């Protein structure tokens, strides 16, 4: 057995959240809100997720596919390899074209990281 604890993506329970399939991978064994965490959000082709906002910041990395992110009424095309941060209380949702799914790594926190300071 490895000394490094690992949460496997496929072992994380999947549920529907804001119109996408969501797997919480960190923190382990925790299903409710947390100050920080990581999950995988999968948006199927030809889908629009539910617009929503929350108190934490959400850092995204597009692991696979392409689509569009809408933030506070502004839309931006996104694709594999893109990274962006959605601020606290910003209303956001995703949409995908008919021929592509979108898989995003979502990391949420109460404070930003990854910014030059």
Automatic annotation (TrEMBL):
Signal peptide: none
Keywords: Metal-binding
Protein's UniProt keywords contain Metal-binding: yes
InterPro entries, A to Z: Cupin_2, GPI/OXD, RmlC-like_jellyroll, RmlC_Cupin_sf
Database matches in Pfam families: Cupin_2
PANTHER family: CUPIN TYPE-2 DOMAIN-CONTAINING PROTEIN, OXALATE-BINDING PROTEIN
Protein's name in the database: Cupin domain-containing protein
Provenance organism: Streptomyces polychromogenes
């Amino acid at each position: 057995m490895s000394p490094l604890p690992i949460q496997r993506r496929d072992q994380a329970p999947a549920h529907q959240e804001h119109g996408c399939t969501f797997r919480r991978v960190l923190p382990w064994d925790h299903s409710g809100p947390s100050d920080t965490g990581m999950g995988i959000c999968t948006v199927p082709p030809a889908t629009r997720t539910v617009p929503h906002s929350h108190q934490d910041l959400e850092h995204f990395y597009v692991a696979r596919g392409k689509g569009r992110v809408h933030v506070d009424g502004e839309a931006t095309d996104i694709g594999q390899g893109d990274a962006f941060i959605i601020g606290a209380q910003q209303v956001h949702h995703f949409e995908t074209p008919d021929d592509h799914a979108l898989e995003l790594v979502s990391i949420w926190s109460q404070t930003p990281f990854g910014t030059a300071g």
